[in-house]
Amino acid sequence: MQQADTALVLFSGGQDSTTCLAWALERYARVETIGFDYGQRHAIELAVRPTVLSKMRALSPAWDARLGEDHLIDLSLIGRISDTALTSDVEIAMQENGLPNTFVPGRNLMFMTVAATVAYRRGLNVLVGGMCETDFSGYPDCRDDTMKALQVALNLGMATRLKVETPLMWIDKKQTWELAEQCGGQALVDLIRFDTHTCYLGERGAPHDWGYGCGTCPACALRARGYAQFAQERRAA
């Protein structure tokens, strides 16, 4: 564990951010979380956040001791200036620019800027985000180059030495399930399956093997495929 460092985890209540939270709790002496209400269509993710955090504490006395304050920030401005499938009731589709209309322009840029501001105030020196460009929908603000550029810009703009960590950047969804298992065992895998929320449509009916969701949106497809590969490998072992 890196005792000298403290972390702020971008925590939505989904699979990736919960895995990142576990990763951070294994490494940093103090960990806080931050979430954003931006008028997202799948606002159920905000509703599950407190339950996931509570159950994360219950998994490990060490995690309970390290896990600090949670911050929920109103960024409804994003929803008001966006016209996307994540902020309005429209069908998910590809756009002429080659990106799905689930891409919310500027979202991660604003998330990271606000998170850095909170980290500055709270005396935290590492930002942890679940951005990934291995299994992803092609969003440019999830790419490693974007995160590296943001780290430079944030530190120049605030005269800080914040470090941006993206533990999922170069792994696929199967490996994300594996990372969760490494951090918290089967108990964390099951917590992610049945307590987190990833589905873009906010569907939370009958559970699948991989958790709740519509099963057809891009987020569900990635999560389901990764879990199927993970479970198949475990059965074969």
From TrEMBL:
Catalytic reaction list: 7-carboxy-7-carbaguanine + NH4(+) + 2 ATP = 7-cyano-7-carbaguanine + 2 AMP + 2 diphosphate + 2 H(+)
CDD domains linked to this entry: QueC-like
GO molecular function, one term: ligase activity, forming carbon-nitrogen bonds
Residues given in the record as ATP binding sites: 11-21
InterPro entries (alphabetical): QueC, Rossmann-like_a/b/a_fold
Cofactor note: Binds 1 zinc ion per subunit.
Biological or metabolic pathway of the protein: Purine metabolism; 7-cyano-7-deazaguanine biosynthesis
UniProt entry tagged with the keyword Cell division: no
One GO term (biological process): tRNA queuosine(34) biosynthetic process
Cofactor: Zn(2+)
Stated name of the protein: 7-cyano-7-deazaguanine synthase
Record organism: Massilia forsythiae
Gene, per the UniProt record: queC
